[in-house]
Amino acid sequence: MTARFDPPGECPVCGTEVPPAAAACPECGACHASGWSEAAAGDAIGLPDEEFDYQAFVAEEFGPPGGSERRPGWVLLTAAGLILLLLLWLLA
């Protein structure tokens, strides 16, 4: 199923007003064959053509890999205390 733009209206590619019975957009030149079809709609969203580099993304978002960080002592003590309390409650 292909969506079809029929002028008049706003060009789905650049947003310029397209006059009635126009064969193409007067601003960007888009027509049904080059940009008004649903198949060409993905080209208008501006995604880069390069491949996605996951490792670079992770390094940019989370910093360089540094191994696992040690947990603060209070976190381990709290967890051990809660486990001990749970065991005492279950045995009582």
Could you explain how this protein is built, in words?
It is a single chain. With 92 residues, this protein is mostly helical. It has one domain (1-66). It has four helices and two strands. β1 and β2 form a beta hairpin.
Structural key phrases:
2 strands, 92 residues, 4 helices, mainly alpha, two-stranded antiparallel sheet
Number of helices: 4
Question: What kind of oligomer do you see?
Answer: single chain
- Shape estimate: elongated
| Helix content percent band | 40-55%
Please count the beta strands (DSSP E, at least 2 residues each). 2
How are the strands of the largest sheet arranged? 1-2
Helix-and-strand structural type = mainly alpha
Low-pLDDT stretches are: none
Series of H and E elements: EEHHHH
Rg, alpha carbons: 29 Å
**N-to-C CA distance:** 67 Å
The main β sheet shows up as: 2 strands, antiparallel
Short description:
By secondary structure, this protein is mostly helical. It has helices spanning 32-36, 38-41, 54-62, 73-91; strands spanning 9-10, 17-18. The longest helix has 19 residues, at 73-91.
